[in-house]
Write a structure and sequence with these properties.
Order of helices and strands: EHEHEEHEEHEHEEHEEHEH
Strand content: 15-25%
Distance between the termini: 32 Å
Radius of gyration: 19 Å
Number of strands: 12
Structural class: alpha/beta
Number of helices: 8
Strand order of the largest sheet: 2-1-3-5-6-4
Shape: elongated
Largest sheet: 6 strands, mixed
Length: 251
């Protein structure tokens, strides 16, 4: 008799220009080490979110997806259901696919960020500036709320709800001692780029946190560190959110 083989389970990443992806390497190494011989992880690089339904219908055995820039918000209308947390955040980075092709969205970014920044926090870290207003920034805001840390957004255009980069002066830096970069500025290969800040305003009281993990130390982190700030890149956050996604896919 033929030995019955396990059903092939497929996972992947939805995004645009994602050949550099952390997720594909991380999960395939995880599958190899853990002897998950029936699992594979691929990148699904799409030019537009309109191509997303095609991925779902054409890829057989697809069980779960991660979602990255620029689709964390755009993907929501294509999903059948959202977890309570994803609904509150308004962004999705993890999707489960049922046998009947029903799609449910989750957010594991907030979990990864919250857990990874916690060890750096001290009593004086009461307010944060979030650089950028994309899907990732929403998860960061949700995590900060759960940590009882006040925050404001920084963007290239100011309004009543957010600062403009040019407005950030010494008095603002004194008040906000956590600065979080959620923009792609400084990602490989543009490693010399950094958010438009006066880096001399960073002090030993500051935390500079960058969601970017490639390069390991961005220009943003390097310049903040030179002023004595505590720094952290996004690698641990990525690992933590990936493990949370794996748990969700296997529930």
């Amino acid at each position: 008799m033929k030995k019955k083989t396990k059903k092939q389970l497929k996972f992947g990443l939805i995004g645009r220009n994602i050949s550099y992806s952390f997720s594909k390497k991380y999960f395939n190494e995880k599958f190899e080490i853990g002897h998950f011989d029936n699992c594979e992880y691929k990148n699904y690089d799409i030019e537009s979110i309109k191509e997303f339904p095609k991925v779902i219908t054409e890829i057989k055995g697809l069980r779960g997806l991660n979602v990255t820039i620029p689709y964390k918000e755009e993907i929501i209308p294509y999903l059948d259901k959202l977890s309570k947390t994803a609904k509150k955040i308004g962004a999705v980075n993890c999707v489960t696919i049922s046998k009947k092709k029903k799609l449910k969205g989750y957010n594991t970014d907030y979990h990864g960020f919250k857990k990874s920044i916690k060890p750096l926090l001290k009593d004086h870290h009461k307010k944060a500036l979030i650089l950028g207003t994309g899907g990732a920034s929403k998860a960061i805001a949700y995590a900060l709320r759960s940590l009882k840390i006040e925050y404001d957004f920084v963007s290239r255009t100011a309004d009543e709800f957010q600062y403009k980069y040019e407005e950030l002066d010494a008095s603002i830096f004194e008040e906000y001692t956590i600065i979080i970069n959620t923009t792609p500025v400084g990602t490989h290969p543009n490693v010399n780029d950094c958010p438009n800040l006066d880096y001399s305003l960073f002090t030993k009281k500051h935390i500079a946190y960058d969601l970017i993990y490639n390069p390991e130390e961005t220009a943003f982190l390097r310049k903040a560190k030179a002023q004595g700030a505590a720094t952290k890149n996004g690698y641990e956050m990525l690992v933590l959110q990936a493990e949370k996604a794996w748990k969700i896919w296997n529930e």
